[in-house]
Design goal:
Elements lengths: L7 E7 L3 H12 L5 E4 L15 E2 L7 H21 L10 E5 L2 H16 L5 E3 L1 H7 L10 E5 L3 E2 L2 H14 L3 E3 L4 E7 L2 E7 L4 E9 L5 H7 L7 E10 L11 E4 L4 E6 L2 E6 L25 H12 L10 E11 L6 E4 L6 E5 L5 H18 L21 H16 L20 H6 L2 E6 L2 E7 L19 H13 L2 E4 L4 E6 L3 H8 L11 E7 L5 E11 L2 E6 L4 H10 L8 E4 L4 E7 L3 H8 L14 E6 L2 E6 L8 E7 L3 H11 L6 E2 L2 H10 L35 H9 L5 E8 L11 E4 L2 E12 L4 E9 L6 H6 L2 E5 L2 E8 L14
Parallel strand pairs: 1-2, 1-11, 2-8, 4-13, 11-18, 21-31
Antiparallel strand pairs: 3-7, 4-6, 5-6, 9-10, 10-11, 12-15, 12-16, 13-14, 14-15, 17-18, 19-20, 21-27, 22-25, 22-26, 23-24, 24-25, 27-30, 28-29, 29-30, 32-35, 32-37, 33-34, 33-36, 34-35, 36-37
Length: 819
């Protein structure tokens, strides 16, 4: 008997694929029974039905990725016992192969980290690899990496089993019920309208519409940058003797995965130069659909795929399948509450990993909806990380072809996307390029990574996990910061003007530190959630009784703005203005910074007149700029907020005046090495929403007794009351000057594994690789244990002796900063 569409539900989920059914299932597990799933056609009819069903770990580089993955693998393995419907999961095993030294080194770096987080990955010999995958030509490989518990599942079976589990928990699922509109009232999602004109009001609306999500969201003003692309796999005819339990094999050198399929072999392509599909919008009636294969375009990629299994050429082709999958600009999903609408959440843009990561993502989103706080680090997947630029047709057209190959190819720590560039450029860009800048990209900003002696030399000769050709040039920038003076274009830093009668009340409520200070004071502070987990770390500068400037990293732009706007009270008067486009931020740092600034300004820049953590408007040549005496590199200096109209002139003046002081341009590599020598933290890189300021060593910026308190005050007070933490963020310096650190390397204390590094760089002043990371012990991690312990860091399987410290190893007394 057909179900009747309800007029109201606690939660309405749009989309009945893997993500929608996973979200519904996990919501019911948390006790939310009034859940409605609306599927425009039939369950799985979008892209779920043609997924390859791989349940394999790949290379996972964060705790959150590991947790999301392992939850799904474990759930699919046991779900049939709960629902009575099979998932088709079989743990046939998973092989990744390394056919060059760089890939081998990368795998050896990440394997210990993945093992630490529940993934049983181990290096095996070429001979062992060949024995596990006898159909392949593995004569060129250096090693394999094997996970016996990984495997494959049937995507349709998985989804149907999840749907039944959701129904068992009280959810109702309606097929052939297309949602045409998200209902909105006063900036809040209030329900949905279907194609038949029926409406369902809801307390929460969740968009899980797969590749249709962008166009549906756009109708409600929601920014969801994702684009469908052609995605291919080839299935051969049956191959005699091919085992049904053949492990899944992944080969980055051919951009292909291989697995058994009904007695034949599936060759799945993640080819470079993929083709975007339907840039102007996905057809609403596309269901269980295929795309006509472009044999001419995909032919060379198939030839490369066959080179790994040449014997497969001896059998025919059963099917060359081409179907759409949706991809995001940075290859991470879009998950979480939308900044545009209250009570609206999304989970989409799974980058062809909807089965693999669907369960973990559904669990994360369900807990986020029910608890109001996500259970894992979501800084990399939070939907609020993008601006509208990345959703434009031109951006999706240009970035799309790079995405599939980027997923499967070899990766390097400093390699940026090559397409859809120059979206956000400082007005100083051309000056920096002429000065020899090599630019990387972060959140669509063009950032000078390092400077070569001439523009012609500004090239990466060869990406590597070892020293690259620019290493010595970067070292010279670093030395200039410590010995002379550097200039850094930090225009990418997000800057917000906060004005109005209740500006102080809003920022005080958000900030752990005291921001109700005299005008002209700069306050470093964390923002935390109700559980004490970080939401931001930033500076808040008071310019007047009712006016502040907030400065935060480019990776936190959307999240910071959203958090401020969501916490303005109904009766409060606060105006938030994003002033980033109008302000060029020029940082001047180094022991000769004051000498340089005194040459171009008539202001009194002495320590008495302009002390650390204060702000003044000063003249620089013909121009007036806001100067903040702060540092993120551990040296004397100023952060100059220059109106972009005058920025080129100010830059030219500073460069000319600074020649006698050894002034150099410096890039992001140098910013990283300088700040890590000083052990400065960075939200979204080495601290996240699952960490708290007490354990992260930022308790000095938490004022538990400030009037009025702040969001998360009680949680932090409880953590503080426990005494010396068992988990603490420490700084590490390798005693061997040769190895490099990047992050995810394991930490050992007295021979026991106690944590992993968050981020690393080379400390040219300290004389070795330096990093910060959390160490966790059974007992309180006291200063004595830190100072006297035998510390080691695992670098690609080799343990390197290290020095650990609670205080910065460079200038722990802040003498250079406050001079």
């Amino acid at each position: 008997m057909p179900q009747t569409l309800p007029s109201h539900a606690q939660t309405v989920i749009i989309g009945g694929g893997s993500i929608g059914c996973n979200t519904a299932y996990h919501l019911t597990k948390l006790g939310m029974t009034d859940v409605v799933v609306l599927e425009r056609d039939q369950l799985t009819s979008g892209t779920t039905w043609h997924a390859a069903g791989l349940i394999v770990a790949g290379l996972l580089k964060s705790e959150a990725e590991c947790e999301i993955y392992t939850h799904g693998r474990d759930l699919y393995a046991r779900l049939e016992q709960e629902t009575g419907l099979p998932t088709g999961f079989r743990d046939v095993g998973y092989l990744q192969i390394a056919s060059n030294a760089e890939r081998l080194h990368e795998m050896r770096r990440l394997a210990p980290f993945m093992r630490r987080h529940g993934i049983n990955i181990h290096e095996i010999s070429p001979q062992e690899t060949a024995a596990l995958f006898p159909i392949g030509d593995l004569s060129d490989i250096l090693a394999g990496f094997y996970i016996p518990e990984d495997g494959r599942a049937n995507p349709v079976d998985v989804t149907m089993s999840l749907a039944k589990g959701a129904r068992m928990g009280g959810a109702r699922i309606f097929e052939n019920t297309a949602v045409t509109e998200i209902l909105v009232e006063n900036g809040t999602a209030t329900g949905v309208r279907t194609a038949t004109g029926e409406t369902i009001t809801a307390e929460t609306v969740v968009v899980c519409g797969g590749m249709w999500s962008r166009q549906l969201g756009a109708k409600a003003g929601i920014n969801l940058p994702l684009q469908a692309a052609e995605h291919y796999y080839l299935i051969t005819e049956k191959i005699a003797g091919l085992s049904r339990d053949l492990p899944v094999l992944e080969d980055p050198s051919t951009y292909t995965y291989y697995r058994e399929e009904v007695g034949g072999l599936m060759l799945g392509l993640f080819e470079p130069g993929a083709a975007p599909w339907k840039l102007d919008g996905i057809p609403e009636d596309f269901a269980f659909g295929e795309i006509e294969p472009d044999w001419d375009r995909v032919g060379p990629h198939l030839e490369r795929a066959y080179s790994r299994v040449p014997s497969a050429l001896n059998v025919g082709v059963r099917k060359l399948f081409c179907g759409p999958e949706s991809f995001t600009p940075d290859l991470a999903p879009l998950v979480g509450p939308t900044p545009e609408l209250r009570n609206c959440y999304v989970a989409c843009g799974m980058n062809s990993l909807g089965i693999l990561n669907g369960a973990g993502t559904g669990k994360v989103l369900a807990q986020w909806i029910v608890d109001g706080v996500p259970p894992v680090d979501v800084t990399a997947i939070n939907v609020n990380r993008f601006t509208k630029n990345e959703a434009t047709r031109a951006f999706r057209r240009d970035r799309g072809p790079e995405l599939l190959g980027k997923m499967f190819g070899q990766h390097y720590h400093n390699e940026s996307f090559r397409t859809a560039r120059n979206v956000k450029r400082s007005v100083l860009h051309d000056r920096l390029k002429a000065a020899g800048a090599w630019f990387g990209e972060s959140h669509s900003w063009e950032l000078p990574d390092w400077f070569a002696p001439t523009p012609e030399q500004a090239q990466v000769e060869r990406y590597s996990w070892f020293r690259q050709n620019w290493f010595d040039w970067h070292a010279a920038e670093h030395r200039a910061a410590r010995e002379d003076v550097i200039l850094m274009d930090m225009s990418s830093m997000s800057k917000f003007s906060i004005e109005g009668r209740d500006a102080c009340a809003l920022l005080s409520r958000l900030s752990c530190n005291d921001v109700d200070v005299e005008p002209g004071r700069v306050t470093y502070t964390a923002w935390v959630n109700e559980r004490g987990g970080f939401e931001a770390d930033l500076t808040v500068t008071r310019l007047a009784a009712d006016k502040y400037v907030v400065v935060v990293g480019e990776n936190s732009h959307g999240h910071t703005e959203m958090r401020m706007r969501r916490h303005i009270g109904a009766d409060e008067c606060v105006v938030i203005t994003d002033i980033t486009p109008g302000i060029t931020q020029i940082n001047i740092h180094g022991p000769k910074a004051r000498l340089l600034m005194e040459k171009v300004s008539s202001a009194d820049l002495s320590n008495d007149a302009f002390p650390f953590m204060t702000a003044q408007e000063i003249d620089v040549g013909y121009f007036n700029v806001l100067a903040l005496r702060v540092t993120y590199v551990g040296e004397l200096g100023w952060e100059l907020h220059v109106p972009s109209l005058h920025a080129v002139q100010v830059y030219d003046l500073l460069m000319a005046a600074g020649q006698e002081f050894g002034l150099r341009n410096a890039g992001m590599q140098t910013l990283g090495s300088l700040r890590l020598e000083k052990a400065y933290r960075d939200f979204g890189v080495d601290i996240d929403n699952t960490d708290n300021p007490i354990e992260a060593g930022l308790g000095f910026a938490v004022k538990l007794d400030k009037p009025g308190g702040f969001i998360g005050r009680d949680a932090l007070a409880a953590i503080k009351a426990q005494g010396v933490p068992k988990t603490r963020m420490l700084q590490f310096l390798l005693k061997d000057p040769e190895p490099l650190l990047y992050g995810n390397e394991l930490i050992y204390l007295n021979g026991q594994e106690v944590g992993h590094l968050q981020v690393g760089a080379y400390g040219h002043t300290l004389g070795g690789a330096v990093a910060i990371g959390f160490a966790e012990t059974d007992a309180p991690l006291t200063a004595e244990i830190v100072d006297t312990g035998d510390w080691e860091i695992d670098v690609a399987g080799e343990r390197i002796k290290a020095v650990a410290s609670l205080k910065p190893l460079f200038d722990p007394k802040m003498e250079r900063v406050k001079c």
